[in-house]
Amino acid sequence: MTLRRMTHRRTAKLALITLATALSASLAACSTNSSAQSGKGTTTITFMGDYNPAWPAQVPWNVAMQKGWFTDAGLNIVYNLPPTNAAPAQLVGVGKEDVTVSYTPDTLTAASKGLDVKALAAIWDKNVEGIETFDPSIKTPQDLSGKSVAVYDFPMAQLNWKTFSTHYGIKNVKMVSEGNYGVPILLAGKADAIDGAAGGELTDSQLREHKHATFFVYDQAHGIPSFYWFIIDANGAWLKTHAAAAHKFVAVMECATKWSADHPSEAAAIYYQRNIAAGSQQLALQGWKDIVSLESSPYVAGKPLGYMDPGIWSSYLQFLNKAKFLSGSVNLNNVLTNNQYVPSSTPTNCASI
Q1: What's the structural domain count of the chain?
Q2: Helices 201-209 and 281-293 sit at what angle, rounded to 10 degrees?
Q3: Most buried of 96, 173, 196, 322 (most Cβ within 10 A)?
Q4: Cβ contacts of residue 11 below 8 Å, gap of 6+?
Q5: pLDDT tens-place string over residues 30-84
Q6: CA 298, 124, 46, 348 torsion-angle sign
Q7: What pLDDT digit, counting tens, does each position of 124-170 carry?
Q8: Domain ends where: 222, 248, 276?
Q9: Any domain includes 289
Q10: φ/ψ bin of 203: left (φ > 0), alpha (ψ from -120 to 50), beta (otherwise)
Q11: What is the CATH number of the domain that holds 63?
């Protein structure tokens, strides 16, 4: 799994068992994928969210589903959350799901295993994860030297921390396991800093403490190569026979993202009403605002929302290969779709796509 939000993660062993079972079932079911013409002019799409449980980054498609924008575009969405948080790109890759929202490292991991996954468009460009602290003595990354830092134990979190700490020459750190969720560890003083994300740990801890944390986001300025954070993936075989539906799906998603960024209070309220168990309405609104604030400028100016620069993909793949993160080789020509599913301009009327 690439990123985590406010949740109790399953143990790694249980996650692997569950994912293996799901993938086995998926392979057996590929020939009976649920995509179908569900009525005159309507296409059913199985859509898996990026993370379980729900979190504020999922605001846009919750808004689109609630307002009926997918239906208006002739799409019948069968929506579900993943059985494990590493699963979405891999389940799409084996044909169990038609589309998902994933992260570049997860998409490339699936591709490195030979799975048929295609990257259609970005939703948000920039990473929202990093290191957060309330310790007033930590003003720069170098100030983490000699401190205690809690980092999640899954591979991407460990790689990000290693890259970040090496970049700044951070030394003599007491590493603390972040367990299932880092905020209680931070607020109890069991670690001076934790791995956190805007919309998740960062937002939650700031609301609890009623003050701002110092936050070093994992981005190029802090030694982490740029990559597309939130992307739309599709199964390659499905895409060959459902290109028109894929175009509409991406257009609705991009339109809903822009609308939600422009109407944060209404968007967050819709999301919260659909996901009451995921937290408070205050957390939904502030979490969404925190995510949007970090996405104010895309990597490439002058391009429509959703555009992905192949050069960024290439350089990030080189980074993962150098770090020996992937299990096999990846040909980006088999993953990228050359922005052909990205609208030439971001739609403004989400009900008429």
Answers
A1: 2
A2: 120
A3: 196
A4: none
A5: 433 445 555 557 999 999 999 888 999 999 999 999 999 999 999 999 999 999 8
A6: negative
A7: 999 999 999 999 999 999 999 999 999 998 888 999 999 999 999 99
A8: 222
A9: yes
A10: alpha
A11: 3.40.190.10
